[in-house]
Amino acid sequence: MKRPEAVARIESESQPWDVLVIGGGASGFGTALEAASRGHRTLLLEGSDFGQGTSSRSTKLIHGGVRYLAQGKIGLVRESLRERGFLLKNAPHLVHTLGFVIPCFRWWEKPYYQLGLEMYDRLSGSHRLAQTHGLSKAQTLEKVNGISSEGLSGGVRYEDGQFDDARLIISLYRTLLDQGGLAINHARVTQLIEDNDRVCGVIAQDQINQEEWKITAKVIVNATGIFSDQIRKLNEAQSSDIITTSRGIHLVLPRSFMSGSDAIMIPKTHDGRVLFIIPWHNHLLAGTTDTPCDSPEPEPRPTSTEIEYLLGYLNRYLTQPVEKKDILSTFAGLRPLIGGRGDGHTSRISRDYHLQTSSTGLITLAGGKWSTYRAMGEAAINQAEKVGDLESRKSNTTDLKLYNDTNELVEITGESPSNDNLLHPDYPWSQADVIHAVRYSLAQKVEDVISRRIRALPLNTEAAEQIAPKAAELMAKELGEDNNWIGGQIQSFRSLLESYRPNP
C-alpha cells in the first residue's frame, strides 16, 4: 500500500474505528496487530516514521534479561523468554539465536554465572535454546576471537535471541495490513476529542501535506513511549507524569575488532551495568549505557562522556585498542521507564510495562521492552475490549507468522537491471531496496530509508552520506517529487548525520 491510498482510506472512513492506536513503535504495533488479528477495525497513527524513536535504537536483542534474573524479577524473565520463543518461531527471517560468552577472570565467576544461566535456561521451559556450558580459556578465545587473554581463566556460554528492530517494525506493519488493519506514518495527533466525558477520537495532522483529519474510534490506546505523558495530558492536563526517561547509547565498530562467532556479555561494570559486544550486520555493536534524562527528545545524541565510558570497557576486554576514530557510527535511544528513583540510578528501574485507563477511557500502555511487545499488545486489547465495549475475542498472535517481503524485492529487481545495482560497493543495499521502501512501507523521507529500511545510518555514517543523493533521486521518482525536494532531503539528512557521528 502506498501512502496516498492509506490517506484516502482514512479520509473516506465514515464509521468510528473499533481501535485507534497512537504510536508506531514496538508497543503500538503489538497492540494494533493484536486488535486487527481479533477482527477489530484498527487504525494506527505514528507522528514521525514507524519505529523512529526508541524501537529502532535497541541493543538488537530478544531476551529474557539475565540481569533481571539477578534482581529477582522471575515473572518478567519467564514471560520474556516465552515471548522470545514465539518470535523465533513466527519471524525466523528477522530473529535468530546468538551465542553469548561471559569471560571469567576470577576463580568463582565460572561456577557462579553458569549456575545463574542454567536457571535462566530452565525458565525458558519448552522454548529452551542450547544448553549453557562452561568454556576453557582456549575455547573462550576461539568463540570470541579478539578478546584479551590476560588473566582470562575461561568463560560461560549461553544462547539468546538477536534481531533487527526497525525491520521487524516494518514486518509488523505489513502483517497488520494482511490482518485488515491500517497504519500511517508522519501523522501527528494534536488533540483528543471527548464526548460525554469519554475520549472518542483525535485530531491528527498529516506531516507530509499538512492536512488535518478528525478521526473517531470506540477506544483509543496511547502507545507513544517516551511521549506517553504528553498524550495523557491532552486528555487530563493535570495528570502526574508516569514516565522516567533514560538514555542508552551504542557504538558501531568494524567487525575486525572481534571476529569470533559469538557475542560478549560483560555482566557487571563498576557502576552496576550490563554491557554487550555483539556481531550485527557484519559489524560490532557495543552498548549500552543508562543515563537519566530530564525530558524526551526526538533525536537524542550520545555525549562524549558516554562514548568514553564504552571505549574504556572495550579497551579492557579487546586486544586491539579502540579509539574514537575507529567508530563508524553512534546512536542513542531513550527508554520510557515507569516510575523513578531519587538516587538517579535509572538502571535500577523496572523494565516491566504499565497499563492504565483514564477516567475518560484513554488507555495508556507504557514501559516494557521489545521482547514482550506481543504480550503487551495482548494485555492492552484485553483491556480495550472492556473499555470500548467491543466483542471479547481470543488472542491468536502466539502462532501468527510475520510478513516476509523477499518476493517483492525480486519483482522490483526484475523491472529493470539497474534496480539490482548496489548503492555502495561495500554493502548489500540495492536500488531495489529504496524503491521497495517507498512502495510497500510508506517511506517518505531519505532518513526513513537510510536509517530504518536499510539500516545504513546506524551502521556507517560515511557510507550513509555517500548513498543519500542516489536514494533521494530514486525516491523522488517514486513519489513524483522534483529537484527541489531532492536537495531539501539531502540537506536535512546531512544535518541528521551529526547525531550519529562521534563527538569531536
Task: Give a structural overview.
The chain is of the alpha+beta class. It has three domains: 180 residues, FAD/NAD(P)-binding domain; 154 residues, D-Amino Acid Oxidase, subunit A, domain 2 (D-Amino Acid Oxidase, Chain A, domain 2); 92 residues, no CATH class. It contains 16 helices and 18 strands. Strands 3, 4, 5, 6, 11, 12, 13, 14, 15 and 16 form a ten-stranded mixed beta sheet that branches. Strands 1, 2, 7, 8, 9, 10, 17 and 18 form an eight-stranded mixed beta sheet that branches. Helix 12 packs across helix 15. The relative contact order is 0.16. The model has no long low-confidence stretch (mean pLDDT 94).
Biggest sheet layout:
10 strands, mixed
Low-confidence segments, ≥5 residues, pLDDT <50?
A: none
Mean pLDDT: 94
The CATH class designation of the largest domain is: Alpha Beta
Count of helix runs: 16
The structural domain count equals: 3
Beta-strand percentage range = 15-25%
The CATH homology group name of the largest domain: FAD/NAD(P)-binding domain
The proportion of residues forming helix, as a percent range, comes to 25-40%
Structure classification: alpha+beta
- Report the strand count: 18
The name of the CATH topology of the largest domain is FAD/NAD(P)-binding domain
Distance between the terminal alpha carbons, to the nearest Å?
Answer: 42 Å
CATH architecture of the largest domain: 3-Layer(bba) Sandwich
Form type = globular
Radius of gyration: 23 Å
